[in-house]
Structures are given as C-alpha cells and as structure tokens.
Amino acid sequence: MKWSVLSRRVAVWVGLVVISLWAVGLGARWITPKIQTTEALAGFVATLAEVLAGVLGFTISAVAIVVQLSAERFSPKVTELFLRERTNLLTILFLIIANLISVWTTLAFAFHPIPLALVVINLILGSMAFIILIPYFIFVLDFLQPNSIIQSLERQVRQGIMQRFEPSASPMQIQQVHRSCLSALGEFRSIAISAIQQRDQAIILGCLESLRNLAVFYGEYKSQLPEPWFRLTPPVYKDSEFVSVDAMKLREIEAQKIWLEVKIFRQYQGILTNSLLVSAETCTLVGICTREIGEQALDLGHTHVIHLTVKFFNTYLRLVMNQRDIRAGYNIIKQYRLLAEQALLQGFDETALEIGHHFRYYSIIAYKANLYFLCETFAYDLGHLVQTCSNLGDEVHRNLLDIFLKIDHDPESEQQEQSSRGVRKSQVKLAAYYLSRGERELADLIFQDMHHEPYTRVQIICEELLSTTEDFWEFTDRGESFYYLEPELRPYVQEFFSWFSRPSIPAPG
After folding, report:
1. Is the pTM of this model over 0.90?
2. Which of 139, 147, 275, 484 is deepest in the core (most CB within 10 A)?
3. CB–CB of 144/70 below 8 Å?
C-alpha cells in the first residue's frame, strides 16, 4: 500500500515537471522574437531578485517574531515543534531556491544574451512565491494556536510509543525515543501552568484531556511494547520527575512497568498544585481525568496502575488539605468515590476497602485541621459507597460499614472525637436505608455508635434532615444535596430517632 501511494506521488511530480519544462520551452519560442531590449529584461530579472530577497527576509522575520511570542507565552518547545514541521521547511526552502535561481539568472546574462528559459522559470517561481504567502501565514497562525501545539505534543508521544523496535534495537535508539516522549510530556504541565496564570480554561482543558488520552492509549497499546521499552534508561531516571526518587522506588517502578504512567500523573500533580485556590475548575478536571485513567486500568486489570491511581488521589487530598482548598477537595473526593464504586462493580473489593480506609484517615486529618466540611464530605461519600455495596457482598459491605462507623474516631488519641452533625446525618441516612430494606440489625449498629449523643443534638439532626430540600440553593459542580432524604425514607428516619430516649425532667425540689 505504501509503495503504491509513493509511486503515484512520484508519477504526479514527474508529470508536473515535464509539463512545466514543456510550457517553458513553448513560452520561450513564443516570446523570443518579441523581445526588443535585452537590458530591460536584465533589469527586470535583477529587480525580481531584489524583491524575492525582500520577501524571504520579511517571511523569516515575521515568522520568527510570531514563533518567539508563542514560545514565551506557552513553552520554548513551540520553537522546536515549529522547526520540525515539514510545511515550514518546504516553504522556506522554496523561497530560498527561488532567490538562488534569480541570482543565477542575473549572472547568466553575462554568458548568454537572452537566457529565456531561466527568465520564464523566474516568472513562475516569483509568482508562486507571492501566491503562497497568504496560505502560508494562515498555516503559521493556525499551527501556533494552543490546541494545535497540544495536538503536536500528543502526536509526538504517540509516535514514540508506536515506534516498532527490532529485537536487535540499540540502547541509543530506545533512549532517543524515551527522551522524545519525556520532553513532550513535560511540556503539558508548562503550557497548563502558563494558561492557569492567564486564566485560559480552554488551554488547560486541552492539556488535561491530551494527558488522559495518552494514558488511555498507552494502556491499550502497552501489551504490544517490547521489554526494553519498560527499562529505566538514562533519559528516564535523569528526568526531573524521577531524579529525586529513591533508587529502591525506581526499581519498583521499573519492575511494575509504570514509568510512563508515573510521568503522566506527576504532570497532573504539578497542575493541581498550581491550581489550588486559583482555579477550582482545573482541580475538578484533574480529578475527573485521574478517575478515568483508573477506570480504564480496572477494565484492563492493570493492578499496578490501579494502585498508582489510588496513591495519586491520596496525594491530591494531601495537597488540598495543606492548601486548605475546601472546594477542590469537595470535588476530588467525589471522583475518588466514583473510582471506588467502579472497583466494587468490577470485583476489586480490596481496592474499594483500601479507598475506604483512606477516606477515614483523611477525614481525621481534615478534622484536626478544622476543615469540618471536608469531614462531612468524606462521611457522605463513604456512606454512599457503603449503600452501593450493600447488594454486592456481605463481607466487603460489613468491612466498609465498620470503617464508616469509625470515620470520626481518632486511633491516636483512643477516644471518640466530638463529631460534626454532618457526619451523623450521613450515618442516619444509611440507617434509614437499612430500615427500608428490613435490615434492622445493621441500623442498630449505627444506633449503638451514636446513642451517646445528647438528645438535643439528636433533635437538631432530625429536624435538619427532614427539612432539607432536594435542590440546593447554590450552584455546585457536584449537583448533590448531601442531606436530602427521599420521601420513602422519611418514615424510617423518624423510626430511627424514636429509639433515642427523651431525658427525664427532675421533680421540683
């Protein structure tokens, strides 16, 4: 197929050259008798040479300025991508050849009175040089669009991944491909951080989606790659993302064949770090893309990538709490919970339990940091996760329920912290769900966990649950009202609260 396409292209070019030469000869025979002054023709050719030199200089200057501005705005990688583009090389090469032929033609008048063939070629090349300027500048401006740059980077990584290595491939060849992929991947973060500073959400979205597309593509293509691809070559362990990593951890990454996934997740981590307290939408998109990569790993059964996704979600939560960005945490926790639900549905119970333990751990960290709303968010999502797995397996369900009931218990202080009402509301909602299914013993476990609560506090919780409307009065990315009770659950909530005994009033005196 490739040879047939190549042969057709060669035939077309040969035909064009033959037709052009025939046209030049025909034009020469028609024009020669009509030429009156040789000096005027020589002057015209000299003027054309000067004009073409000006066109070449103007084109190079204008393109250099535009490329430099784009490189300063996005990334120095733009210059490299631009110089590698074949259209730019061919256009500049054509203008240079047109200039050289014009210069040679002016010299040819010293050897031949009328070098008519060269003059006609000059006319053709000069006209084409002016005609192609507008399409070429349109191409340059389109190439320097942010989305085009991002697509060029993505294409560079894909070409590196898809490059076929022979069994006898030299280490230098593999190192060169690794270097190309790492260089392109590192530019996504630079472009995204620059876009965050300029509040350009479209560019940020393009970077995040390209990183996700590359991770998904790599996950599907990974089984076809040879063993040398997964080795940590010098370009990998000298990369900025790996140079500070412990040697033992590097050996683990190499054994698990996940160095490219680590590189992609580190780009997300860097983008999230620069987005906290600045761009909540970017933080949400980082969580969504990370979840989608993890879901693909669940579909393909790539356990190492699944554990890596969980680790980076935990890293995101730590960054959120260090920066005290409640809104970012509010949205990232949901994406984390959705990943756990997908793990349950696909039989990865251990992964779901691991995420449940992490929910409890970070809930306690949030409580100690006075980030009480994040505690409520952890409780809501963990309760939702317990409710999701109630039909999937008794063992994993009981284990998650046990984690949920201890979500406000600090193992370091060995005492029950004064939990917020939000955590208790999530527990009461789960108890009502159990009562609606006739599982009174599970609802009783929740009652035993909170029966020491003061009765006035229990009353407030009940009133707030029964008065919460489905449509929250503010617009949120999650679109959920944590404490809304479906009408069919309201009687069971009242039944659950009836188990709490009203305190007796002491007699006068």
Report:
1. no
2. 275
3. yes
